[in-house]
């Protein structure tokens, strides 16, 4: 490795370029911080604002999938199998309602698997009146 020749010059250029980029990043981060302060000063909640930005970056399909899993986990934790959250009811479509209603009718000591039209599979297990719902892997959902 050359200590002062061409390799040293190249390394110095990389370091200087990196330092310029870091200065730009610091400036942008400061601008973002100022925007959040302004946002908060106008009565908006920064945490929710950042969540909206993150969800917009992900896109509708990924957000819908995450919402479905969140609903599923919340039902599993509650042990009721019911999806009574205001968030769920606000965006509930007919298929979701039919699945939710079905889950609530699974008899004791029964396991039922179902696959939605978009290929997502779920297993509903009712043991002693406690319903649990879990999402199936693609192999399980595809099995007859």
Which tags fit this structure?
3 strands, single chain, 2 domains, alpha+beta
Q: Layout of helices and strands, plus pairs?
A:
Elements (H helix, E strand, L loop, with lengths): L5 H36 L4 H13 L1 H19 L7 H5 L3 H10 L6 E6 L5 E7 L2 E6 L2 H5 L2
Antiparallel strand pairs: 1-2, 2-3
Question: How would you describe this structure to a colleague?
Answer:
The chain is α+β, with helices and mostly antiparallel strands. The protein is elongated, with a radius of gyration of 25 Å. About 60% of the residues lie in helices and about 15% in strands. The protein starts with 5 loop residues before the first helix and ends with a helix. The model has no long low-confidence stretch (mean pLDDT about 75).
- What helical percentage do the residues reach? 55-70%
Shape: elongated
Spatially, the strands of the biggest sheet line up as 1-2-3
Structural class assignment: alpha+beta
End-to-end distance, in Å?
A: 63 Å
How many beta-strand segments? Answer: 3
The amount of beta strand, in percent, is: 5-15%
Radius of gyration: 25 Å
Q: What is the makeup of the main sheet? A: 3 strands, antiparallel
Order of helices and strands: HHHHHEEEH
Low-confidence stretches: none
Taken together, the total number of domains comes to 2
The overall average pLDDT, rounded, is 77
How many helices? The count is: 6
